[in-house]
Amino acid sequence: MNEDASALASTTELFATLLARNGPPPRWRRPATFATLIRFILEQQVSLASAQAAFAKLDAAIGEPAPAPFLDLDDPQLREIGFSRQKAGYVRGIADLILADELDLDWVVGSGDEGSAALLRIRGIGPWTVACFDLFVSGRRDVWPTGDRALYVSLSRNLGCEGVMSKQACDEMAAHWSPYRSTAAMMLWHDYLGGSGYELEPGAGFLDDTGMVSE
């Protein structure tokens, strides 16, 4: 990632500024688990803080989330934890697929575009969620999570725009950063979250340097 950050900085003033101000972005990675998919579902269209709070309540209720214990929770319990009816349905569907051996997340990681396409066919998993899985779990190099509001806000601020640029304008600009779009996204997110002053909050579900999920 450091090499890709340097490559971006060598050709684009925006990333030269970000690299000088913040250094390389964190190596955010998540494991290929049911719990990680739950996190991505919870993070859809809400703040990271809200999603993390709901996941913490789920963890307190059933421990490290696994398909069978999750399916034991009824609608009122899931509502109390912070799941909308729609998101509860999505995660139940994913749990059913895993228990039926119809979804193997390790296979998804190792199968490139075929694995991404398989995820996209699952109810509740759209392009943004697939992009996040490809970036944070599979570690693919050239991923741009289209539709991510924080990315668009960060990009617009760093370009000195009065408002937030349109999705089309941001995505068209990002196309020029291939094949380093994953690192471009990480650098923009890092700046959005505070840059050099950013500290990873406990319980965010990212892997530490030993390959374990940070508590």
CATH class of the largest domain: Mainly Alpha
CATH topology label of the largest domain? Endonuclease III, domain 1
Low confidence ranges: 210-215
Mean pLDDT, all residues: 93
Helix content: 55-70%
Number of strands: 0
Give Rg in angstroms.
18 Å
Gist?
The chain is an all-alpha fold and 215 residues long. Helices cover 60% and strands 0% of the residues.
List keywords for this structure.
mainly alpha, disordered C terminus, Endonuclease Iii, domain 2, globular, 2 domains, 215 residues, Endonuclease III, domain 1
Describe this entry's structure for a reader.
The chain is mostly helical and 215 residues long. It folds into 2 domains: 2-27 and 142-197, Endonuclease Iii, domain 2; 34-137, Hypothetical protein, domain 2 (Endonuclease III, domain 1), CATH 1.10.340. It is 60% helix and 0% strand. The protein contains 13 helices and no strands. It has helices spanning 2-11, 13-22, 34-43, 48-62, 67-71, 75-81, 85-99, 105-110, 112-120, 127-137, 149-158, 167-175, 181-192. Helix 3 runs antiparallel to helix 7 and helix 11 packs across helix 13 (181-192). The chain is globular and about 50 Å long.
Write the layout of secondary structure elements.
Elements: H1 2-11, H2 13-22, H3 34-43, H4 48-62, H5 67-71, H6 75-81, H7 85-99, H8 105-110, H9 112-120, H10 127-137, H11 149-158, H12 167-175, H13 181-192
Helix pairs in contact: 1-2, 2-13, 3-4, 3-7, 9-10, 11-13
